[in-house]
Amino acid sequence: MLSTSGSTTRKLLLAFGALVALFTAASGFALARLADIRDGSHALREAGGRVRDALELATAVRDQYAHLAHTIILGNASHVRFHDDTRARVEALTRKLREQARDAQEQSWVADIQQNGDALNRLYHDTLLPAVLAKDQAAITAAHGRALELVSRIQAGADSLAQRFDTSIGSFEAHVGAVEHTSFRWALLFLGGATLFAVGVGIYIGNSVARPVARLSEGAARLARGDLHTRIPEGDSGELGQLAAQFNRMTEALREHQAQLVQHEKLAGIGRLAAGVAHEINNPLGVILGYVRLLQRKAEGALAEDLKVVEEEAVRCQDIVEGLLDLSRPGRGPRERVPLREACEEVVARLRESSRLGDVEVRVEGDASAWAWPPRLRQVLLNLVKNAAEAAGQGGTVALVIGAAPDGGASVAVSDSGPGVKAEDLPRLFEPFFTTKPSGTGLGLAVSQAIAEAHGGRIETDTGPLGGARFTLRLPPASPAQEAMA
């Protein structure tokens, strides 16, 4: 009995030891594979970063071309600084891609991007800009064609890099998938009859690795097809969750850049149209108005009423043309420190004198100052206050709240007691020709936003404390040069 008991004990000990050894081996193997997966995740994140850098380079080159095009459109050197800033970002991204290049082919693409980028910069400063300033149309056309060619080459190089980096993402994903499969097979082999444990391990690995990797793979595929609204759930913890968050931030940044580029190109097209036809339209409108006002002196009764309608519509046409011109030249005139409370009170007084406020109560609160071109700043404030008064209606209230931002900038929030802005109208609120008013031209807010952006600021929209809409004009802090002048 003792011998048997001892033998059983030894067997149990051996079996337990073997089980412990089996679990230890399985755990060691699983830990090794998890470390491999972690390394693959790091590599996948780095590859995603390289894809983002290549796409950001393509976006930066488009921005550089946009400033080049603006130089041609405006016919002056006002976009040189913006062009040089964008060029600096292109060079920084090119250097970063050069450091990330892993083989001769990638290094060759980066070298071509650098060479074409340098050529594009020289073309802008040495050929295009002098031609624009000299009004040499032939030279401008030739330089523009050459610029398009260089931009296309740079874009092709950036696309090739992005495709190569995207391919590397696929290889990393395949590696992680292979590691997962091997881990599952060896877990079954090691654990043998421990089916429930093996299933638990498989479920754990599937939930913690396979699904996040699959979501990343699907998101990368959708992004490669041009779907900039791709979003990956960020509920996972660890490197894959961080990679999903970075992927979402990257797609959001790309979407914002794309929207800004579309908006800038839209405004540039409207500006070109306005600059081309404004003179031809304003001349006949002036003649029409002159004759109408001459005839009004002699007209009576129904004819006088008809002539008044003709005059009002002609003036409306002039306002539309002037609004289009404002879009094409939002204002980069001489800046000076403007007391915002004084400017707001002046705008309110002007509207009050012209009887455009009616019995709307308008109050101005707070005080701050900002660097701006006074005529254009007053134009923005006048548009915002006039719109707020119209939305508030008779007996309504409009509040102008001026404040200083922590970064040294300033803001003017214009709130009204009107019905507010419908949710479906918010995305189109600053589009040219979009209006919710029967008699509006749809240019006031578009022009105001263009002026704000020309000053380095922006206009934001939300619900104000009075229950209606609130439009907040945010202006940036003064530059070091401006501070030195103050």
TrEMBL record:
Record localization: Membrane
Highest rank taxon of the organism: Bacteria
EC number: 2.7.13.3
Keywords attached to this entry: ATP-binding, Coiled coil, Kinase, Membrane, Nucleotide-binding, Phosphoprotein, Transferase, Transmembrane, Transmembrane helix, Two-component regulatory system
Region (Disordered): 458-486
UniProt lineage: Bacteria, Pseudomonadati, Myxococcota, Myxococcia, Myxococcales
Gene3D superfamilies: 1.10.287.130, 6.10.340.10, Histidine kinase-like ATPase, C-terminal domain
Record-annotated HAMP domain positions: 207-259
Protein name: histidine kinase
InterPro entries per UniProt: HAMP_dom (IPR003660), HATPase_C_sf (IPR036890), HATPase_dom (IPR003594), His_kinase_dom (IPR005467), HisK_dim/P_dom (IPR003661), HisK_dim/P_sf (IPR036097), Sig_transdc_His_kin-like_C (IPR004358)
Classification via PANTHER family: PEROXIDE STRESS-ACTIVATED HISTIDINE KINASE MAK3, SENSOR HISTIDINE KINASE
SMART domains reported in the protein's UniProt record: HAMP, HATPase_c, HisKA
Catalytic activity, reaction form: ATP + protein L-histidine = ADP + protein N-phospho-L-histidine
Coiled coil (residue ranges): 240-267
